[in-house]
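// run 5 | inverse folding | seed 20
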């Protein structure tokens, strides 16, 4: 059922949920309306155009409850409870990086951007990244990250011109690349919440690193 609250400014939706899924609805659970998403990466939730909007649920971990404040759009899921490695990249500007932008190692996708926010002092942008569990060992204390969005052109008339990009998707929708030095220079494994600087470009030598 759907009805107005007494103040006529709030909509109350009453949901009937199968008993098997009651455990999803806890304190901290987030519920939002799913709508079509059209961007350069493609079209998501196209079925909502034909069949109307639907609700999505991201379960919390608190006590079971029956009242929630619905969200108008999908929230930034910064640290989901899974086996992936969740780190933070600090940068002066977000650029074309967005939620869902890929993170690349040797031009292979190994993770994705899950959210972003301004730092508490408003001087930097924090970019939240999830590295797939099977690739987490790649990220060490001395790993370097840089913005791989767009096309980079180097060279001149006599030296020749070099054009580079991580992938067509990073060109169109933004992306981040990483490299890790070898042997004792790599440092200890990174842990959840570890902060790294996000550089604008790779420095000389980073692309030659080949850690085992």
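// decoded
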């Amino acid at each position: 059922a759907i009805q107005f609250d007494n103040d006529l400014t709030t909509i109350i939706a009453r949901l009937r949920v199968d008993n098997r899924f009651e455990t999803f609805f806890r304190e901290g659970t987030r519920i939002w309306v799913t709508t079509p998403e059209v961007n350069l990466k493609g079209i998501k939730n196209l079925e909502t155009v034909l069949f109307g909007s639907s609700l999505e649920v991201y379960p919390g971990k608190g006590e079971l409850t029956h009242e929630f404040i619905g969200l108008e759009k999908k929230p930034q899921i910064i640290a989901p409870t899974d086996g992936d490695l969740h780190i933070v990249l600090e940068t002066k500007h977000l650029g074309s990086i967005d939620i869902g932008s890929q993170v690349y190692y040797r031009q292979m996708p190994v993770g994705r951007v899950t959210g972003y926010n301004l730092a508490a002092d408003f001087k930097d942008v924090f970019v939240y990244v999830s590295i797939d569990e099977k690739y987490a060992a790649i990220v060490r204390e001395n790993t370097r990250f840089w913005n791989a969005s767009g096309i980079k052109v180097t060279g001149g008339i006599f030296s020749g011109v070099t054009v580079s990009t991580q992938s067509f998707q990073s060109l169109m929708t933004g992306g981040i690349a990483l490299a890790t030095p070898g042997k004792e220079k790599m440092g200890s494994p990174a842990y959840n919440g570890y902060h790294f600087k996000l550089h604008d470009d790779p420095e000389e030598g980073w692309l030659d690193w080949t850690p085992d």
